[in-house]
Amino acid sequence: MPLALLALTVGAFGIGTTEFVIMGLLPEIAADYGVTIPTAGLLVTGYALGVVVGAPLLTVFGTKVSRKRMLMLLMGLFVLGNLLSALAPTFGVMLAGRVVASLAHGSFFGIGSVVAAGLVAPDKKAGAIATMFTGLTVANIVGVPLGTFVGQTVGWRTTFAIVAALGVIGLLGIAKLVPAMPRPEGARLRRELTAFRNPQVLLAMAMTVLGFGGVFAAITYIAPMMTEVAGYSDGAVTWLLVLFGVGMFLGNLLGGRFADRALMPLLYAALGGLAVVLALFTVVAHDKILAAIAILLVGALGFATVPPLQKRVLDQAHGAPTLASAVNIGAFNLGNALAAWLGGLVISAGLGFTSPNWVGAALAGAALLLAFWSAALERRAPAKDTASAAADRAGADRASESSAPAPTPVHH
Q1: Rounded to two decimals, what is the model's pTM?
Q2: Are 291 and 219 spatial neighbours (Cβ–Cβ below 8 Å)?
Q3: DSSP alpha helices (H): ranges in 194-262?
Q4: What does the pLDDT average to over 35-51?
Q5: 185: three-class secondary structure by DSSP
Q6: pLDDT tens digits for 69-80?
Q7: CA angle 81, 109, 317 (to 5 degrees)
Q8: Which sequence spans correspond to the domains of the chain?
Q9: What region does 66 belong to: left with phi over 0, alpha with psi -120 to 50, or beta?
Q10: Which listed site, 20, 124, 262, 395, has its alpha carbon 20 to 30 Å from 302?
Q11: Of 206, 151, 258, which is closest to residue 366 (Cα–Cα)?
Q12: 144-153 and 236-258 helices cross at what angle (nearest 10)?
């Protein structure tokens, strides 16, 4: 594994920790600022919306500078946001800190995916992307429970200070280890926007919104579902989320392993399996052991779609992958926000704490239908379109080779 990938993974670990640790610290933060839990929940919503907005805006800015410099600037923004959260005297400042930190999220993973793919041989690209995303999944196994524990025992401000320190380590690692990657020739906003004229790019992003929406429909309301329906104690919720993180980690590894050789079959299996498991979750949520297994499977099947969907966007965007890649990261968070809203609607309608699982199953099923549609469009595409796309990719590869270092082989 190129050491530069390790630097990207550390940055991803810090971002994953700050994104998810807030859910375990809402009661402490709400008590400190004298606000209600639903009001404190704006810290989650604000972060998700900041990712959706920040991904395209900062990536557009990033077309004007080298990718390495942009990654360093994004980690600097991440550090600033978390320091602001750690020191915030009022809830409004805390919310601002969350938004500042979130602005870096989408662009970091979007540009980082392009950089990671460029560090390795062509047949290892999905694996390199998955390696970077491992930082995000490991954050849910290690960073989130540790951050929650520190926040509950020492104080939540300490948690955010530690996350800021992680950002500094990531920044220094990128500065030291990521090779200089000049802005590719022809990297202009107009060129980047052309990627969105390709229906396959839009379909991949729609699959991201719906597929990941399926995951978060269930996970957003996992605490009341597990305590009120399955009969777990409040304290057990943290470890159930760790189990979800283990599932994410395993699914991400699986996705990275098979996306390079069987991308669409992997998507069919993961999205279809996710729809089935979420539908069954409404029933098995009443049993502690079966509920825990379902949580593990939701994490695994959901994150098995991440490397193939990200790679599909990179492949279909041809010579203009950076903005499309970052917007796809925003799509994950759009799915998060959409699913949380829809899940809240069905609970408010009196359908019970397991009802968001039906919403998740419907969203995952819709993503599966889009995957079949995408494949059908690809099969019907005239040969000349395929030849044109291949020529575009070849031209992009030549431009990339002229401005990027030679790929570093991955050592297993």
Answers
A1: 0.73
A2: no
A3: 199-219, 222-224, 236-258
A4: 80
A5: coil
A6: 889 999 999 999
A7: 140
A8: 3-403
A9: beta
A10: 124
A11: 206
A12: 160
